[in-house]
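Posting for a labmate who doesn't have an account.
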Amino acid sequence: MRLAPDTTSSLGCRAQVYFQAGQFDKAVADYTRAISFGSTEAWTFRDRGVSRFYLGRIEDAGSDFAKAYELGDVETKVNSAIWLAIAYGRLGKPLPEAIIKRATTEMNGGWSRPALAMLAGAMPPDVLLRTLAAKNGDERQMALSERYFYLGQHYLAAGDKKSAQAYFKKAREQKVIIYTEHTAAGFELQRLGVDTTARSSVPVATEKNAAAK
């Protein structure tokens, strides 16, 4: 920060560090400052939205996700729509019709469209894991980290804390530490009063038995 003070890139980097450390208020402040300096990239609004979400400012988070959806390219729009679905699920609000339509028509497309479809109610949760059929090794492990996290969000919004806890634990167990989903799963478990160092003892669907259904 001393080398490059008050630049959107340095503020964004520090905001990410604050987020990883669970200092959401400081992360939001840095993202907001970056935006005031002219940062109009979709990821800035999306990431500020995630920090606001975990700060408990879910309505504000939803506004950021909607803005990121508006500004983003094709793939960023999908990811922003996913977080918007998560926020609206917590608030008990219906998703905009345009996003529901997109989730339904693109549900068989590339990742992360199936996750959006599942969170929007267009795809049954157990089907989400069947989309892993062609993945192996590290690619499968990374994909599982994301899918387990989104399944946890689905069940948490539905009020099924036991299943949500199990899937968040499974997301953490993949140890894909570079993913926001890995970090966020830890925050969710902390809020559920779970020791994030413990292994999951709650049985959940895996990609193998989901494919067998």
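Reply:
Got it, the structure tokens are right above this. Residues 199-213 have pLDDT under 50 and may be disordered.
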